[in-house]
Amino acid sequence: MTDAPLLKARDISKFYGARIGCRNVSFDLWPGEVLAIVGESGSGKTTLLNCLATRLMPTSGTIEYRSRDGQMRDLARMGEAERRFLMRTDWGFVHQNPADGLRMTVSAGANVGERLMAVGERHYGNIRETAGDWLRRVEIGIDRIDDQPRAFSGGMRQRLQIARNLVTAPRLVFMDEPTGGLDVSVQARLLDLVRGLVHDLGLSAIVVTHDLAVARLLSHRMMVMKDGQVIEHGLTDRVLDDPREAYTQLLVSSILQV
Amino acid sequence: MATPLVVSEVAKSFTMHLRDGIRLPVVSNVSFSVKTGECVVLGGPSGIGKSSLLKMVYGNYGVDGGQILVGHEDRVIDLAAADPRTVLAVRRVTLGYVSQFLRVVPRVAAIDVVAEPLVAGGESPVTAREKAEEMLARLNLPRELWQLPPATFSGGEQQRVNIARGFITGHRILLLDEPTASLDAKNREIVVGMIEEKKRAGVALLGIFHDDDVRTQVADRIVDVSAFSPRRVAA
Fold first, then answer.
1. Distance of CA B232 to CAs B22, B48, B51, B182, Å?
2. What is the DSSP string of A191-230?
3. Is the entire prediction scored with pTM above 0.90?
């Protein structure tokens, strides 16, 4: 880990009219760190994630990102083209529903290759080879490279979406309930995969989940949200083993033991 | 540093918001230290707060007051006040923990569970695996289990995976929460031997052992946790 944060969020608020999406959220994210944002449906997790990833414009607050040249850049002051370039190269966004992050009617190989072309790769042979390599890393058989994701199971689609996001070697990946909607055995496989990739690639990630077990497994640090505000924030195992706030205690005590 | 772990005037209570905000004091005014090459054992009856105290030192539990000073690299860090990133760095390099139960990650093979702390510390995966094999062999975990995830292992087998994972590193401070609880006599002796080795290597150990034999063999000093517990007064 280097000693400068990768992302700095200060007083991020998002209002939908009079309704609060999220309010006064501040934190730093460091290189190689995985931050989980937990809370029940409607607590503002996804609103916050979308603000951070510039998919939504926050009503107030600033988000700074350290670009590859080491400069902290205010995302709101970046041009649209520059921001989009960032999204396509340095960042990844893994949607809960793979259909939102994939192109369902082009082949698996093209889904991965497309992001490579966005960063300037033109050699067809190289693109196909790298795409094949990434399919293998996310445990999709190379014989499926020409199949469309429509023909894939939910778990395979999610793994393909991850490959598509990671192929450009991003430094920061946003994940919105990456294991939601998958059955448990598929979930375990995906979690293990994400955990390994985050470690091997030294990725930073911000993961929104309502599943505290997912947060425990993937994240170093976590923020608990309620009614749009962060009510508890700290080392993941400390928040889960010694929750301070009433709401966090309720969440932790509501986990079903198998 | 001759005293890598100093616990000073630490206090801890739980506030149970779901039980009408009832406040449960756990310990107060806890002060002791552990020197290099020394094994300090936390003593006292069940429920007195021994495990809680270990968790405070490791950082799973927050504390209400006091200091937990750890010699980390060339600095002294107060874990009671450190930010999450610092706590994680201290855990990666300086402070190890063998919990009572293994927290299994689905699909990860026993050998990789054991090798993981070394890899996280920057060791090459190949070397880390070789060392993990040595540890598992020494703890008599049947070779045919090494490539399997430990979820289906027996209690004693899981415990040995856990011990191998905790002892594989070169951490200068090691916390042990009943590492021998579900082991047979033979494996218990092996663990006692491993603790002796750590002591000779200058590691500071802080542990909980309910087994009298093991405790008398490894303990240099016993810190009676009931001296810090409010229950002593109540009883």
1. 19, 9, 17, 29
2. HHHHHHHHHHHT-EEEEE-S-HHHHHHH-SEEEEEETTEE
3. yes
CB contact under 8 A, A188 and B15: no
Query: Could you give the CA distance from residue A124 to residue A117 in angstroms, rounded to a whole number?
Result: 9
Question: Cα separation of B29 and A139, whole Å?
Answer: 53
What are the pLDDT digits (tens) for B177-213? 999 988 999 999 999 999 999 999 999 999 999 889 9
Q: How far apart are CA B157 and CA B178, in angstroms?
A: 15
> Residues of B with CB below 8 A from A245's CB?
17
A183 lies within 8 A of chain B by CB: no
CB contact under 8 A, B84 and A1: no
Please report the ipTM that was assigned to this predicted complex.
0.90
* pLDDT tens, position by position, A132-156: 999 998 989 999 999 999 999 999 9
Q: Which of A214, A235, A236, A244 to mutate to test the interface with B (most CBs of B within 10 A)?
A: A235
- Calculated CA dihedral for residues B192, B193, B197, B202, nearest 10 degrees: 20
> Nearest to residue B146, comparing CAs of B165, B124, B120, B127?
B165
Going edge to edge, which strands form the sheet with B75-78?
Answer: B22-34, B5-16, B65-72, B75-78
Mean pLDDT of chain A: 92
The SS3 of residue B9 is strand
